[in-house]
Amino acid sequence: MRTNFFPYFVAITVCLGWMAIVLSRMLIIPFLPVIEEEFNVTHAQAALLMSSYFLPYAVIQLPAGLISDKFENRFLMILAMLGVLLGCLLINFTSSFNQVLIVRFLTGVLAGLWFTSSFKAITEYANRNRLGLVLGLGYTGSSIGSVLIYVLAGIASSIGMTWRSLFAISSIPSFFCILLICVLMKKAKKKRRDSNEESINRKVNR
């Protein structure tokens, strides 16, 4: 992979990640009336489907930052995307309102690892003169995800697709994001190995 393209590869990876997170977080909103009717819950109870995701997502931010300082942030990125991927898929197997709440809670916990780790990845691999552009490209994923929510909801309602099936489809960005992160990890190892070889050569030449 050409070095001058690599920062944009990171941006595409982060963009897909944010798209996946926004879909897993907000896709449920258009279907709240359907969920209320299916599980026979009130508006207030249905609102717990949002807070059960947002609360752990917000709380995990501080420890996520501390963890990313001590461990490889790329592993945290994979863990976050695995959480989103499994969360979107597991909703298909829920049969009660409480089960949906539990899945949403666990998804929020793992998705909260994404912000710090993805930001760190961008700053690590993007040159200073391209940092703003790469950040901008990476974080467009949130906006794209927000637009896709209502496009997908409209398509689903017109063809009679269930809200659970739509969550399964929304797991696709997280799947491809995991694949790209694996490529990113491979590139990082090569970069680290080349750096070590260069350092050894410098010491030998002294």
Overview of this structure, please?
The protein starts with 5 loop residues before the first helix and ends with a helix. The protein is 83% helix and 0% strand. It has helices at 6-26, 32-39, 43-59, 61-70, 73-90, 97-111, 114-125, 131-138, 140-159, 163-169, 172-205. The mean pLDDT is 87. It has 206 residues and is mainly α. The radius of gyration is 19 Å and the shape is elongated.
What's the short story on this structure?
With 206 residues, the protein is mainly alpha-helical.
Mind sketching the topology for me?
Layout: H1 6-26, H2 32-39, H3 43-59, H4 61-70, H5 73-90, H6 97-111, H7 114-125, H8 131-138, H9 140-159, H10 163-169, H11 172-205
Helix pairs in contact: 1-5, 1-7, 1-8, 1-9, 1-11, 2-3, 3-6, 4-7, 5-6, 5-7, 5-11
Question: What would you call the structural class?
Answer: mainly alpha
Shape call: elongated
Strand content: under 5%
How far is it from the N-terminal to the C-terminal residue, by CA?
A: 32 Å
Helix content: over 70%
| Rg, Cα atoms, Å | 19 Å
Summed over residues and divided by their number, the pLDDT gives a mean of 87
- Could you describe the largest sheet, including whether it forms a barrel? none
Q: What count of helical segments does DSSP give? A: 11
